[in-house]
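wait is this the right file?? whatever heres the structure
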């Protein structure tokens, strides 16, 4: 099973105050609470995102079981953070103000396209700040309400269906959504998408004349859209089609997003999409491309 992400990296440091000065004042991270003499913890994204950078002076839990003698158990490491700022100007200014020597930029191409700056922290760890050419992903839950967008995303959408039982069987039985609530009198079912509380799809039974085909998209992973969506749909008796309806069942890429997607229909003819954002920089000039074309031109650096 895959992990859910990197939770914490802890650096063993000689002096908390010096290390805090580097990660707070030069790198620009936010402390989660006041540091003590032997511990400090930073948020690498925001307070609400559990991806921490810890600084520890002294022993770590269970370190006595290390096969190595005290003093040789932990040493400098190299690690990189994705910069939250678009440009390195402020980081470089902070570094020069605090006398930190910065090396680089190193230009990356391909999947890591962007620039990296390197800097040794006071404990000789080699810190890298990576500035991807694409904008850094925005935290979905910023730490303070002052900066928070009111609209955080789409939570629910509702569609008219001509046969409630048939649609429940399709969305829950075939596609695997979870039924959350059902009102037989009102002929409505509310389903969870992506698990309880993540997002909701409402099915409202109406006379056929009121069931006008709509379009909406389910979020999926890149790996699944590319690797198994077509087979997954076919196993369920569903025909997949791509945006161009070119007779193939290949997922297509929307260059401006960029995202990869495949389409199919529900029993009422609603157009459903499985879509996944790609980690690459957008290339609107490509329009809608096959995955093969997207990969070929990306790897060729075009
Ligand atoms: Fe769409």
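ok assuming it is, sequence goes like this
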């Amino acid at each position: 099973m895959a992990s859910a992400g990197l939770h914490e990296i802890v650096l063993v440091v000689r002096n908390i105050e010096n290390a805090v000065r580097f990660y707070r004042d030069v790198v620009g991270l936010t402390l989660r609470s006041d540091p003590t003499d032997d511990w400090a913890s930073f948020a690498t994204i925001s307070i609400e995102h559990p991806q921490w950078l810890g600084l520890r002076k002294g022993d770590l839990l269970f370190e006595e079981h290390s096969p190595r003698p005290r003093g040789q158990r932990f040493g400098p490491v190299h690690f990189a953070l994705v910069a939250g700022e678009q440009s390195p100007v402020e980081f470089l200014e902070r570094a020069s103000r605090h006398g930190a020597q910065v090396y680089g930029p190193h230009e990356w191409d391909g999947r890591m396209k962007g620039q990296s700056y390197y800097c040794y922290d006071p404990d000789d760890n080699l810190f890298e700040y990576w500035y991807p050419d694409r904008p850094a992903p925005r935290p979905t839950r910023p730490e303070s309400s002052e900066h928070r967008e009111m609209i955080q995303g789409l939570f629910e959408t509702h569609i008219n269906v001509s046969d409630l039982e048939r649609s429940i069987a399709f969305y829950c039985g075939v596609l695997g959504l979870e039924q959350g609530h059902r009102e037989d009198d009102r002929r409505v079912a509310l389903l969870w998408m992506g698990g309880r509380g993540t997002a909701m799809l409402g099915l409202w039974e109406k006379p056929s004349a009121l069931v006008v085909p709509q379009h909406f998209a389910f979020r999926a992973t890149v790996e699944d859209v590319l690797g198994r969506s077509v087979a997954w749909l076919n196993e369920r008796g569903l025909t997949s089609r791509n945006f161009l309806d070119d007779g193939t069942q290949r997922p297509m890429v929307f260059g401006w997003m960029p995202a990869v997607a495949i389409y199919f229909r529900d029993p009422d003819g609603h157009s459903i999409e499985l879509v996944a954002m790609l980690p690459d920089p957008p290339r609107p000039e490509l329009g809608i491309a096959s995955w093969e074309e997207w990969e070929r031109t990306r790897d060729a650096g075009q």
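The two ends are 35 Å apart (CA to CA). so i think its the right one actually
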